[in-house]
């Protein structure tokens, strides 16, 4: 009789330990999914970019985050189609961006790229690398994740997703309003 009783106790322990393992794994997955940077909402910020020359990056502060405005040259735009096989999410199907920016250049206008300047791995600020012998990219100094000039992440780094594109709208030919669609 005591042998049957021990089997019941052992089975309950097994179910309890198994349930705790599943709960722990579920919490870990939930923590990972919620740790991706989310674009802030509200308090729109108008920014003039009319004087921004091609190849130059302007950084503005919005809700305590750096938001980039990059004016891409015609060569930069043409180069975006040249290396899609090296990208994790080339069509931006699993990325955070407004629906209107779900296109090859991830922007409302091909020549203007707007993004939150924060790596999707651990939030470090990537730096723009361009010039002779360089196709133009953003490089994260923390763990060397690379992003193209549309903010799409290359497979070789640890960043899990493309750069986040905030809601924004264009006002005329030389002004963008960040935080409004």
UniProtKB/TrEMBL annotation:
Its EC number is 7.1.1.8. The keyword Cell membrane does not apply. InterPro entries: Rieske_2Fe-2S, Rieske_2Fe-2S_sf, Rieske_Fe-S_prot, Rieske_Fe-S_prot_C, Ubiquinol_cyt_c_Rdtase_Fe-S-su. It catalyses: a quinol + 2 Fe(III)-[cytochrome c](out) = a quinone + 2 Fe(II)-[cytochrome c](out) + 2 H(+)(out). Coiled coil: none annotated. This is Ubiquinol-cytochrome c reductase iron-sulfur subunit. Pfam families: Rieske (PF00355). GO terms for molecular function: 2 iron, 2 sulfur cluster binding; metal ion binding; quinol-cytochrome-c reductase activity. Residues 88-177 form the Rieske domain. The chain crosses the membrane at residues 12-33. The Rieske protein is a high potential 2Fe-2S protein. Keywords: 2Fe-2S, Disulfide bond, Electron transport, Iron, Iron-sulfur, Membrane, Metal-binding, Transmembrane, Transmembrane helix, Transport. Binds 1 [2Fe-2S] cluster per subunit. It is found in: Membrane. It comes from the Bacteria. It is an enzyme of class 7 (translocase). The lineage of its organism: Bacteria, Pseudomonadati, Pseudomonadota, Betaproteobacteria, Nitrosomonadales. Its cofactor is [2Fe-2S] cluster. GO terms for cellular component: membrane. The main subunits of complex b-c1 are: cytochrome b, cytochrome c1 and the Rieske protein. It is a single-pass membrane protein.
């Amino acid at each position: 009789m005591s042998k049957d009783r021990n089997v019941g106790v052992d089975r309950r322990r097994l179910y309890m330990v198994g349930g705790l393992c599943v709960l722990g794994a579920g919490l870990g997955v939930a923590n990972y999914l919620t740790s991706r940077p989310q674009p802030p909402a509200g308090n729109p910020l108008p920014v003039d970019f009319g004087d921004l020359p091609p190849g130059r990056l302007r950084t503005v502060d919005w809700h305590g985050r750096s938001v980039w405005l990059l004016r891409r040259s015609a060569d930069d735009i043409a180069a975006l189609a040249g290396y899609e096989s090296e990208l994790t999410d080339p069509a931006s199907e699993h990325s955070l961006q407004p629906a209107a920016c779900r296109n090859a250049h991830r922007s409302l206008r091909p020549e203007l790229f707007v993004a939150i300047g924060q790596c999707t791995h651990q939030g470090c600020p990537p730096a723009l690398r361009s010039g002779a012998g360089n196709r133009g990219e953003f490089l994260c100094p923390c763990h060397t994740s690379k992003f193209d000039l549309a903010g799409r992440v290359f497979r070789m780094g640890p960043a899990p997703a493309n750069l986040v594109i905030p809601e924004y709208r264009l006002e005329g030919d030389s002004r963008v309003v960040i935080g409004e669609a």
